[in-house]
Amino acid sequence: MKIIVTDEVSAEGLALLTQDARIQLDVKLGLKKDELLAVIGDYEAIITRSGTTVDKALLDAATKLKIVARAGVGIDNVDVDYASSKGVIVVNAPFGNTNSAAEHTLALLLSFCRNVTIANASLKAGEWKRAPFTGHELKGRVAGVIGLGKVGGRVAARLKAFECEVLACDPYVSVKRANDLGVKLVSHDEIYKNCDIITVHTPLTDETRNMVGPREFGLMKSGVIILNVARGGIINEQALLDNLVSGKVLGGAVDVWSQEPPSSETLKQLIANKKLVVTPHLGANTFEAQINVAIDVSREIINYLDDKPMENAVNIPRFDLALMDQMRPFLNLMSVMCDFGIQLVDTNLEKVSFGFAGNIAHYDCSPLTVCGLTALLNRVVDQDVNMVNASLIADQMGIVVEESKTTQGGAFSNVVTLIIEGEGKRRLVSGTLFEGVPRIVRLRDYSMDFSPEEHMLLLNYNDRPGIIGKVGTILGQYNINIGSMNLGRHEKKGEAMVLLSLDTAVPENVLQEIKAAADASYIRALSMRVGACTRSCGCGA
């Protein structure tokens, strides 16, 4: 795999890649946009930080690209939606600089409260003044943390250590998580109305952009302290400036900016304001954090090469890693079933349904659904399909995808069912696992029991004596050996279904000869990609 590194990334953290014989790592820093576009087509992966914009133009030029690795928490500089449409996996390092960002938040808060920066400048200028730099203690203050994720949770714990009362707002966090941290979950407005200190720790999204604006500042107490060490643009910068000037905001600290480097008049005035402690996006700038994020994205690339689950891919549905060992066989089962089922269809797909019954229904099955959809579409479209772009491609093709679950598994502890519909025709395949091996247990309304093999022959016919013998004779004439047979029927001399596992493939002329001899109403030669889920799926199974 050829990988290009376009921004400063810790060499120590990249050691995993430089030591792998499968990888050619090219570090090319400071490339101009046109220079990068000229070379990116040679690479399968790109490692960046904030200095490289992975936009539509770059992704179109990167014809071999499989992975975009952002060595940091955010993905603001990556067009994730367009990457997904191209089947490109986007990974980041959401936890590598967690501690660094949390500590920087407290460093800035304490610097503001104790006038560290201006007292430092005064003393270095030869002055000895103490009275102008009287500060504020944290003990007893009410601190509000917006976003109680990895960084926000650490900030909350540290504020508790300074004997603050901590309120938090995060719609995606459980009450138990808040209780474990010793904080109280409240609404956004309660944060603004009740807190002496407010710090934001959310990603920058359409939902959070300008989340703290004029209305929110209007709800705040006079003398509030504001911090943003998350992402520029979460706090409306003009509103912050206005409230600093009016005195509503006592002061605070900002590390991140909506424009980096800042050049607008509003940002210049904010940076110059004496009530703010400011730094140039240093939250992740510790030696330890830089090594950690580089290690994290390097591991993700190695996971990709080793067909292992990718822990921090932002555009792939994934299981809780604690469940991965239990769920991996079901990913394989789903891939095998869909590879089998799609070969029974000769019409355009209109609807695909995935059903999960039994114990498996207690878990999130969406990665199984996407894995199955990937296997189906890889048989019917020209482009490469993986778990990144499968849902997008299905939507573009107008295919309706449904998922259903029930904890009642019937005769089996777990059953997965695939139903494919199109142009008035319907195909149903149900499967389960026996000692970890995929087995098909139902085709249409016939009970069956077989493990898919590389070469198979399926046919429907009216059950009568001698038909199987005729089929076997014809196959024998062409030196095609039968490995096993599975027969399904509802009644004597009614319609029957037979599935033959063969040692070699059945040519078209032989297929037509068998169809005529058996007067088959349906016949299909099947070719399976037997084994574990392929890398094209992207599930890591």
Automatic annotation (TrEMBL):
PROSITE patterns: ACT, D_2_HYDROXYACID_DH_1, D_2_HYDROXYACID_DH_2, D_2_HYDROXYACID_DH_3. Residues 456-528 form the ACT domain. It catalyses: (R)-2-hydroxyglutarate + NAD(+) = 2-oxoglutarate + NADH + H(+); (2R)-3-phosphoglycerate + NAD(+) = 3-phosphooxypyruvate + NADH + H(+). Gene3D superfamilies: 3.30.70.260, D-3-phosphoglycerate dehydrogenase, domain 3 (3.30.1330.90), NAD(P)-binding Rossmann-like Domain (3.40.50.720). Keywords: Amino-acid biosynthesis, NAD, Oxidoreductase, Serine biosynthesis. One of its GO terms (molecular function) is phosphoglycerate dehydrogenase activity. It comes from the Bacteria. Its EC number is 1.1.1.95. InterPro entries: ACT-like_dom_sf, ACT_dom, ASB_dom_sf, D-isomer_2_OHA_DH_cat_dom, D-isomer_DH_CS, D-isomer_DH_CS1, D-isomer_DH_NAD-bd, NAD(P)-bd_dom_sf. Pathway: Amino-acid biosynthesis; L-serine biosynthesis; L-serine from 3-phospho-D-glycerate: step 1/3. Belongs to the D-isomer specific 2-hydroxyacid dehydrogenase family. Catalyzes the reversible oxidation of 3-phospho-D-glycerate to 3-phosphonooxypyruvate, the first step of the phosphorylated L-serine biosynthesis pathway. Also catalyzes the reversible oxidation of 2-hydroxyglutarate to 2-oxoglutarate. This is D-3-phosphoglycerate dehydrogenase. It comes from Oryzomonas sagensis. The lineage of its organism: Bacteria, Pseudomonadati, Thermodesulfobacteriota, Desulfuromonadia, Geobacterales.
